[in-house]
Specification:
It is a single chain. This protein has two domains: about 140 residues, 3-Layer(aba) Sandwich (Rossmann fold), CATH 3.40.50.1980; about 130 residues, Nitrogenase molybdenum iron protein domain (Rossmann fold, 3-Layer(aba) Sandwich), CATH 3.40.50. Helices cover about 40% and strands about 20% of the residues. The chain contains 17 helices and 13 strands. It is globular and about 60 Å long. Pfam families: Peripla_BP_2.
């Protein structure tokens, strides 16, 4: 995630803006009593994460998601959050069409956005008994403030911020909610769909793929192996070229047209948020060197910028089936 056109906040998401840390923490402690449990009764699962371990309440009822896409997994597991983080998309309650049916009559409060960061006061106002942020970049300071309100599950340890896989996210939240069996069923169902789709498209196996995006006017970037959009293709049988493998420490890096010309790949995928595909096309058209690439001349480059592309980018147990129903069939003719 790092393309210019991705929702003004995606590039800045690594620095949540919270305002005055001292004033907000004082508010958090006042609301939560500084106990770290928000008044809830603990005794449920103990979840390990980047900042330690959190014991969650049994059967939490008021869950606030400060993760970029955690609401999808919560909804899939039968929990309607009372607060959500608005990543992008301009949909009611920050819930995309593939998850709206599960939202039902729920109207979770928006407790932050990619452009402004987490609003601690809004989180507190939602009176949570559990806060989750598995797909996030929570800092220690943010975690401290949130955990003063209620038990808080941050991003997993041992993976990059915003690097949790959809499988692990679903399992972690399933354990937190006491829905381990349901989580396992959900994961298995989507994994089976990946396997079936890969079997139906044997031309994907072993082919190299590079996923890029527009970073700025005349500037392009590529995603690393741990980015969800890249994982989507590797789970279908594609493999990463050396230029992508070098990005293990980050999920997105700028690349020049000259460097791109050295990346001999079988498939070049350009990702854009909805409404920004034309801007990307314009920038590519005005880059002469790009037009000389073999992958471009051979018709093995594609721009993905519709709702299915966003489902791929969200990469959740709810969104991925939509992406799998729509994207592989558009890629297959390019690989014949």
């Amino acid at each position: 995630m790092g393309d210019l056109q991705t929702r003004a906040g995606e590039l800045s998401r690594r620095g949540f803006l919270i305002g005055s840390a001292v004033a907000v923490l004082a508010f958090a402690v006042a609301c939560g009593g500084g106990t770290g449990d928000g008044g809830a009764v603990a005794g449920g699962a103990t979840i390990a994460h980047k900042y330690g371990e959190t014991t969650v309440p049994v059967n939490p009822q008021r869950i606030v998601s400060v993760g970029y896409n955690d609401q999808d997994a919560l909804l899939a597991l039968g929990a309607v959050p009372v607060g959500v983080f608005d990543w992008y998309g301009d949909y009611p309650s920050a819930v995309w069409p593939w998850a709206q049916d599960l939202l039902g009559d729920g109207e979770p409060a928006i407790v932050g956005s990619a452009g402004t960061g987490i609003d601690i006061e809004k989180v507190a106002a939602a009176a949570p008994d559990l806060i989750v942020g598995t797909y996030s970049g929570l800092t220690q300071g943010q975690y401290n403030m949130l955990s003063a309100l209620a038990p808080t599950i941050a991003q997993p340890a041992g993976v990059a911020d915003y690097g949790v896989s959809w499988q692990d996210q679903t399992r972690i939240l399933g354990e937190a909610l006491g829905e381990q069996e349901r989580a396992a069923e959900l994961v298995a169902g989507v994994q089976n769909q990946f396997a079936d789709t890969a079997d139906a498209h044997p031309m994907f196996a072993g082919k190299t793929v590079l996923v890029g995006a527009l970073k700025g006017p005349g500037q392009f970037g590529v995603y690393g192996p741990d980015d969800p959009k890249v994982r989507f293709f590797t789970e279908l049988g594609f493999v990463n070229p050396p230029v992508a493998e070098q990005l293990r420490s980050t999920n997105f890096a700028e690349i020049s047209a000259e460097q791109l010309s050295l990346a001999d790949v079988d498939l070049l995928v350009w990702y854009a948020s909805e409404g920004f595909g034309d801007q990307l096309r314009t920038e590519l058209d005005r880059t002469p060197l790009y037009q000389t690439l073999d992958v471009v001349k051979d018709g093995r480059a594609i721009i993905l910028d519709d709702e299915a592309a966003q489902a791929m980018a969200w990469s959740t147990v709810l969104s991925l089936p939509h992406a799998l129903d729509n994207i592989p069939g558009r890629i297959a003719p390019l690989m014949d």
